Amino acid sequence: MKIMVISDTHGDVYYLNKVIQTFYAQGYNKLYHLGDIGRESIKLLNPLSDKIKAVKGNNDFFLEDAKFKCDSYIELDYVFNKVIVLTHGHYYSPYSYNGKYDIFLYGHTHTGLIYKVGNQIIACPGSISLPRDQYNSYIEINEKSIKLVDVETSKVIKQELL
């Protein structure tokens, strides 16, 4: 199984189309969206509604057309024998969240990162549309690793083993 993690699309259909093509071409099974989806993105994401787990961001006001659930600021998933926290990052952070987790995923900063603190992994996919670093990026999680990937080149920017 492979999971793609994106955030802060802000309605950018150009990069979202690229990411969706990659999703299908590389055989991803799930898509996590960590908020700030954007109204224009919903139409592109709706065909994937049965594969999407999404959280609400600070700019998500018009989600009524979404065919996927996106009404919470935090969600949990259990995959690869790991507890995964999904949040946008404007309310919850790995430092303010009191629950147990193996992987903490958040957006909001538009800067991609992956790092370990003890046995826990903290990661942000950056932004596919409006990066504040040099990469339009997403995250891939599989049973062995978590990777930060450049949308344009498919180059792995950073990787940690699970």
- Helix content range: 10-25%
Count of runs of 4 or more consecutive helical residues: 2
Structural class: mainly beta
Instruction: Quickly give the CATH architecture.
Output: 4-Layer Sandwich
Short précis:
By secondary structure, the chain is mostly beta strands. The protein has helices at 13-25, 39-45; strands at residues 2-6, 30-33, 52-54, 74-79, 82-87, 103-106, 112-117, 120-125, 137-142, 145-150, 156-161.
Write out key terms for the chains shown.
162 residues, mainly beta, Purple Acid Phosphatase, chain A, domain 2, 2 helices
Folded structure, characterized:
The protein is mainly β. The protein has a single domain (2-161), classed as Purple Acid Phosphatase, chain A, domain 2 (4-Layer Sandwich), CATH 3.60.21.10. Helix content is 12%, strand content 36%. It is built from two helices and eleven strands. The chain has helices at 13-25, 39-45, and strands at 2-6, 30-33, 52-54, 74-79, 82-87, 103-106, 112-117, 120-125, 137-142, 145-150, 156-161. The strands form two sheets. The protein has a six-stranded mixed sheet with strand order 3-2-1-9-10-11, with no helix packed on it. It has a five-stranded mixed sheet with strand order 4-5-6-8-7, with no helix packed on it. A hairpin with a 5-residue loop joins strand 10 (145-150) and strand 11. Helix 1 runs parallel beside helix 2 (39-45). The longest helix is centred in the N-terminal third of the chain and has 13 residues, at 13-25. It is globular and about 40 Å long. The two termini are 14 Å apart. The mean pLDDT is 95.
